[in-house]
Amino acid sequence: MKKLFSYIKDFTSGLGRMQIQTYSAASAYYLFVSLVPLLMLLTALLRYTPITDEFLMSFIVEYFPEPMAEIISGIINSIYVGSGIALVVSIVLALFLFSAVFKSILRGLDAVYEADRKDTNLMFSLRAALYFILLLFSAVLLLVFIVYWGRITALVTPYLPQELLESKAVKLLGKLKLPFTFLFLFCAFTFFYKWAPASRGRYVHQFAGAFVSAAGWTVLSLIFSVYLLISPSWGAYGFFGTVIISLLWLFNCLKVFFFGGYINNFLMKRRILKLEEEEDV
Fold first, then answer.
1. How far is it, in rounded angstroms, from Cα 10 to Cα 64?
2. What's the Cα-to-Cα distance from 26 to each of 29, 106, 114, 185, rounded to whole Å?
3. C-alpha to C-alpha distance for 107 and 196, rounded to whole angstroms
């Protein structure tokens, strides 16, 4: 029992020194501010894919909490009636603002992993911009995959036996949006914990934090969705209330993300300490 209390004390005392709230607030602010140019750029790229604006809107409504979905949908509607000059401006703004987003996130991860980054300011900015480009490319690929998966399903379904379509297994697959979302977040967080911090561990050592972060993001999104269903009073504040709710959601999601990184680093330090004790024996 004494060992357990010592373990908890080490965990909580270290957590208080990490300034997770500071990095989460900065990242949430930059992420929210960069939302408009990012969506302008993403929407422009999607015009060269089979994805329609109707599909994009339905995807946003399905996978984002209601207040965030309302803001994003409004931005996309305005983008489709915009000009080409707006696209050029959006590319520049998106690169600049998302570079700031990723720099804030990378600094936060360096803090929770207690890593000393030796990059120059220029290299750090280029690295952040590279992460943004990879994220944008991944988002487009994911949306294209979803579109083609829907088309493949629509083509195959008429040729499947009716008994199979009505089976419990097939019906269960249709209800697995939440587990698939969790699995996607788990893989994304594992990759990010592995490569984003200045100090890099093995993939398997990132699983604990990635699991906690993916579960936290999923639960937080569900809580916000349920809260908005049972308590729509935020609507009395109009757009301002929507912005507040969305920022709170982003802020708490990022807190969970940095907390997951802290868990990975804490467990890694405990493993190293245990190995050192075994060597001394």
1. 36
2. 5, 12, 19, 22
3. 10
Q: pLDDT, tens digit, for every residue of 7-61?
A: 777 888 778 788 899 999 988 888 888 777 777 777 777 766 666 777 777 777 7
Is the model's pLDDT at 210 over the cut of 70? yes
Strand, coil or helix: 202: coil
**How does DSSP classify residue 142?**
H
Q: Please count the other Cβ atoms lying within 10 Å of the Cβ belonging to residue 38.
A: 24
Cα separation, 113 vs 18, whole angstroms: 9
What secondary structure letter does DSSP report for 167?
S
- What gap in Å lies between CA 120 and CA 102, rounded to an integer? 15
Distance CA 196, CA 131 (A): 9
User: How many CA atoms within 13 Å lie on the side-chain side of 137?
Assistant: 6
Q: What span, in angstroms and rounded, lies between the C-alpha atoms of 146 and 156?
A: 15
Question: Residues 253, 216: contact at Cβ < 8 Å?
Answer: yes
